[in-house]
Amino acid sequence: MAEHQRIHPVNQEEQEDVEAAAALQASPTVPLVPRGTSKSDHHNHKPADDVPVVQQQYSSYPPFQRTFPVSHSKPPKRRRSCCCKCLCWTVSLLLLLILVVAIIAGVLFLVFRPKLPSYSIDSMQITQFNPTDNTTTFDVTITARNPNKNIGIYYEGGSRITVWYTSTKLCQGSLPKFYQGHRNTTVLDVALTGQTSDANGLITTLQQTATIPLNLRVNQPVRVKLGKLKLFKVKFLVRCRLDVDSLSSSNAIHIKNSSCKFRVRL
């Protein structure tokens, strides 16, 4: 008689242990990330067939890279030399001085309304002629007019007046020192003396000419008075062109035409 197969009852705790052991044997023994490799090793490679799906999905993402802000260095500042600074200060002071002078000149012009003086040659005569030493003396009458209401003119010493025929100087002299007040007209009689190598021949030649062109030049230092303020010294330059009929010692010289130009030199 065959032996009957006995079935032993298994309790519930032993059954759970058996199922857990079976689950451990069925689980994969390959790690998700192989040892000795980093996460970025498989970033640019095609996943192998034997790599689990979880590892393939994890390696498909790009590795995390930390970005740092780029700092641009400022260009070094150029140090200005002492010469450059001195030149800039000098130019600035000169411009400031010019501006101040221009403002003062503008105020003075608006207050005093300056006008240029005028000059004219009224008459000219040979008063003395000495053929022995070739000396000739001329008497010239000059009229100076000051049209300014609040400006006076001091005529200083050191003036010079000359009369020329082409390139030959006939005579020379100087104007006297005097003060010309506001809106004043002054008539000056000036004696001019000349000496040439052949005065007699020159006078004879000029007497035979119908019209004799003469040039009269005046170089006169003056000081201008604005109200009660006396300014620095300047020079009046007068140039007159004369056309006379003759140069004779017996009578006055007739002036046919005359024109004068005036300018100031500092």
TrEMBL record:
Residues 141-240 form the Late embryogenesis abundant protein LEA-2 subgroup domain. Residues 38-48 have a biased composition (Basic and acidic residues). It is a single-pass membrane protein. GO terms for cellular component: plasma membrane. GO terms for biological process: defense response to other organism. The lineage of its organism: Eukaryota, Viridiplantae, Streptophyta, Embryophyta, Tracheophyta. It comes from Turnera subulata. Its main location: membrane. It is found in: Membrane. Residues 1-20, 25-48 are annotated as: Disordered. This is Late embryogenesis abundant protein LEA-2 subgroup domain-containing protein. Keywords: Membrane, Transmembrane, Transmembrane helix. The chain crosses the membrane at residues 89-112.
